Amino acid sequence: MASGGDELNIIFVPYLSPGHMIPMIDVARLFAAHGVIATIITTPSNSLLFQNSIDHDINSGHKISIHQIQFPHAEVGLPVGIENFSTLTSPDMAPKLFYAVSMLQQSIEQVILDRKPDCIVSDMFFPWTLQVARQLGIPRFVFHGSSYFAQCAEHSVEQHKPYLNVESDMETFLLPELPHKIEMMKLQLMDFMTPADEFSKFMNLIKETDKKSYGTITNSFYELEHDYEEYYKRVMGMKSWSMGPVSRVVNRDASKKAQRGNKSAVGEQDCITWLNFKEHNSVLYICFGSLTKLSGAQLLEIAAGLEASGHQFMWVIRKRENDEDPWLPEGFEERMRESKKGFIIKGWAPQLLILDHPAIGGMVTHCGWNSILEGLNAGLPLITWPLFAEQFYNEKLVTKVLRIGVSVGVTEWTTSYDGQKGLVRREEVEKAVALMMGGGREAMEIRKQAKELGAAAKKAVENGGSSEANLIALINELKTVKQGATARDKFNGE
């Protein structure tokens, strides 16, 4: 079983979506920086997203590598290069990619069995890795790319079904037994929470597999979600190690921040040069993540609201393909360029680099957990605009528990491919921007709290911090597990 010597050999199996893949790669790099031999299994196009970062780590003496497995383009009918959910150009590609991911199982299993690692760290969407770990007699950890709060809130909904006690989709209900008073509407629940469809069954399988695993690795830190980390362990009965914010640990200098994820649609220096001419805390950053593509009608409302607010902004735009609706007011780009009030990025942005610039004073976020943590790392207040997955839960954490943001007013859960249901009107956009970027008392209190949590995030990953201590403790525990297994193997004559 496993590798020889005292070094730990861990295999990481990330899912093929940026929100899952990028933080898990950071986790692998974090382990490698602490002397672990880390191997990442992924496909050729996905490896290009982080190859530069891995090469940098290798040159720094870290034992980390990528093992590529072939992607079944021809078998599922996807163009060469489409290997990640962020690269899909139409919704009808999604089922093909889901099927392709399922076809990777045998190849991944074989790599793990051949390499005989000491441990597997697997994305939640690969529950079958538990069986491989059991076959090898090694620990399996599950990586969740979400907050403790979201998992606890979802558990409360599943256990108590409070949505059954309301008469309409818009009526609010209380999530029972959580440490804070959290109210939601049925419209804000994920689709698979109520019907017994195939995806619901798959999510139930994931949760059962999580309980049977050695534990979970979570991209959070104790000072941020301590009430919900305790709930997760005590009420839900899960073992977990908080190691975040992982992006802060392994992407400290500007070059690493710029290289993280896809290639930027604009020159990094162009962004920084534009921001260098702005006053501190004067620019609002707007981004809806790597998957969401909004309708032309919604983009038009956002543009009008931003312009009406009078505040400066940097806006990352991903528009739906084949949407013929007008998506910017006439002359908008020219006015923003001439007035230097707005900077538009059509595609991937060097987000970590931008958020750390002192000119950025706030962020509009879809409430994906990575984006929240990246904004929090920079000590930024947030305007919340949730759309799908666990994002409505995360919004409650931001606005009701941490109190570092305000809601733009989205009320209905959707899918990443639909963009959203209904429109957030320009008046609501203007109102939220004016509140957050203005100098009012509420905005100042939110900004102060965000700065304090940003400082706590930095402290958590430094020497002696809670997340750094968790990482070292887990590595030592896994070495003990390995030594015990090696001793048993020798005793049994293996």
Automatic annotation (TrEMBL):
Family according to the record: Belongs to the UDP-glycosyltransferase family.
Keyword Transferase applies: yes
Keyword Nucleotide-binding: no
GO molecular-function term, one example from the UniProt record: glucosyltransferase activity
InterPro entries linked to this entry: UDP_glucos_trans (IPR002213), UDP_glycos_trans_CS (IPR035595)
Organism whose genome encodes this protein: Ilex paraguariensis
Keywords for this protein: Glycosyltransferase, Transferase
Enzyme Commission number, as recorded: 2.4.1.-
Domain of life: Eukaryota
Name listed for the protein in its UniProt record: Glycosyltransferase
